[in-house]
Amino acid sequence: MEKEEKINGIISKLSFAGKSPLPDDELSSDLGFDSLSMVELLIVIEESLNILIEVSDLDPARLTTVQDLYDLMQKYE
Amino acid sequence: MDKRIFDGVLGISCLENYILGILKSREVDISRLYCRSLIDPQKLYKDIFIENMTYETYREIPSIHSIAKQLGLIKFIFVETNRGFDIILKLRKLSQNEYLLVRVKPEYLKEKFNIRLWRDDHYILVFMKNSEIYFINDKPLAEGVLTQKELMGAYDHGYMWIRALSPMNKEMIDNSMIQFIDLFHSLKSLNYANSISYFETDREVKTKHMLLIYRVALQRTIEFLGYYFDMSSYMQYILELNKLLAKLEYDILKKNVNICGSTDIIFFIINCNLMFYENVEKELRGV
Predict the structure, then answer these.
(1) Is residue B21 part of a domain?
(2) Contacting residues of A for B11, CB less than 8 Å apart
(3) DSSP-derived secondary structure letter, A64
(4) A2-74 fold
(5) Structural domain includes residue B206
(6) Which residue in A36, B148, B185, B192 is deepest, having the highest Cβ count within 10 Å?
(7) Contact B140 A16 (CB under 8 A)
(8) What is the rounded distance in angstroms from the CA atom of residue B212 to the CA atom of residue B238?
(9) Which residues of B fall within a CB distance of 8 Å from A62?
(10) Is B205 found in the same domain as B230?
């Protein structure tokens, strides 16, 4: 839960939406991330959670919603 | 009209996104406007790596508005004026088939959406809705009401007025295919014989620009040809390009030097294009 709160805080800061993200929010259409700013988002999360994301996880097709981000980060304990 | 007009549009610039969105909202098959999007990766390599062109300044793919105008779908004019109030007057007189794109100051976008722009000239689509000024922004996707004061404050000395003309007809559809076939054969005969250098400065960033342009060019061409052939299997190329772009951007932001990665991407694009050309040629023989 703490991890999700951190992710939400980062999304709120980087997104234009100006609201707390919901799990079903689409990173692109609801929160305004494009293919490049999505990578920036991952790097900020990476630094905040003190993890190193594997190259194989940098796959935009598998990261469409906020929930996808939560799920991915579960991998990194 | 709302921000959903941008679902699936493939503009390279904001102007292209708006034109595509507007025409889509008028039920035009916008994939016909991608008829001249195909590009030879070796020419692209030369443009980016030798001529120093960038994604935001790339003009080698004919613009969507010029194609839409040539096909007879729209007419438009750009107006440069300091008289911001002109757009308010213009807005109030817009008919059902007229649209206004207003150039806005980059700081307005930064303040309102917290975004960095690729280019300094950015436009928003504005129209009257329930007696209020309503705007739609392409990237990030946003829409809402603007006061007259806000619009005047954001206005950056220029606007584009667009009138949608006749709907797409068979002649336009046939014309778009003729244009595609001409382009396809002209690109096939090109021979640039560029050698890939490993030592350019900003190699990763240039590769990113190449990848961004090639991705949209290929995706548009797949959509264009999807009208005639089953192109679903080609989407694997787009998915792979998306992954490569994400990895490359990751390296750029992390300042990881990855010369081999950049070269692999360039060769992937060239090889991917060779396969694409071969397959399209086979398909075209049946037309």
Answers:
(1) no
(2) none
(3) -
(4) 1.10.1200
(5) yes
(6) A36
(7) yes
(8) 11
(9) none
(10) yes
